[in-house]
């Protein structure tokens, strides 16, 4: 492992260098567009639901909302997904589900995102409707048909099975592994 390149106290610099060279090889402009993001992950030609999900992921990684993921945004995304604490991840998931950005998740939003994720990940033990009903049944404490960020985080943290299900269903580490390994088809 390139531990010899490391200077005491300099943290993950060799790893950063690895990501940087990988990122620049895949994206010489230093700006990853949505089209390039899909190509990099080998996710072109998805159904509309799958496309919607990838676009949401892209938009959330695109921190400054300029329509591109630059290297710093890319590293922030990798850090969150691989090293992020559980409440950071839950905030990120909430943002992903809250499609209209109004600060609440309704059943329709959760259903559409989960349907899209199923289109990409394929494997699941329940339908999108069952998943959505189960989540709302467990954590919509005031039964208003919407989940606030607080309801979502405390509800998921309270319920071990739900936490596991959400973490597994929305695991993006395979997406990031594809980026790390440069899954773009060689010519």
Automatic annotation (TrEMBL):
Record InterPro entries: EF-hand-dom_pair (IPR011992), EF_Hand_1_Ca_BS (IPR018247), EF_hand_dom (IPR002048), Recoverin (IPR028846)
Originating organism: Crypturellus soui
Entry's Gene Ontology molecular function annotations: calcium ion binding; calcium sensitive guanylate cyclase activator activity
Name of the protein in its database record: GUC1C protein
Coiled coil: none
Any matching Pfam family: EF-hand_1
GO cellular component term, pick one: photoreceptor outer segment
PANTHER family: CALCIUM BINDING PROTEINS, GUANYLYL CYCLASE-ACTIVATING PROTEIN 3
Record keywords: Calcium, Lipoprotein, Metal-binding, Myristate, Repeat
Domain (EF-hand) ranges: 49-84, 85-120, 127-162
């Amino acid at each position: 492992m390139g531990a010899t390149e490391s200077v005491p106290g300099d943290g993950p610099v060799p790893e950063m260098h690895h990501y940087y060279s990988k990122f620049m090889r895949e994206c010489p402009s230093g700006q990853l567009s949505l089209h390039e993001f899909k190509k990099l992950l080998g996710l072109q030609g998805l159904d509309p639901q799958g496309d919607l999900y990838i676009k949401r992921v892209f938009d959330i990684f695109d921190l400054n909302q300029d329509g591109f993921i630059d290297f710093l945004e890319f590293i922030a995304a990798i850090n969150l997904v691989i090293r992020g604490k559980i409440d950071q991840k839950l905030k990120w998931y909430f943002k992903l589900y809250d499609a209209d950005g109004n600060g609440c998740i309704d059943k329709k939003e959760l259903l559409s995102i989960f349907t899209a994720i199923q289109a990409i990940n394929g494997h699941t033990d329940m339908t999108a409707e069952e998943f959505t009903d189960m989540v709302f049944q467990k954590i919509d404490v005031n039964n208003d048909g919407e989940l606030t960020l607080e309801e979502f985080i405390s509800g998921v943290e309270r319920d071990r099975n739900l936490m596991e299900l959400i973490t597994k269903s929305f695991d993006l580490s395979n997406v990031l592994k594809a980026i790390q390994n440069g899954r773009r088809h060689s010519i």
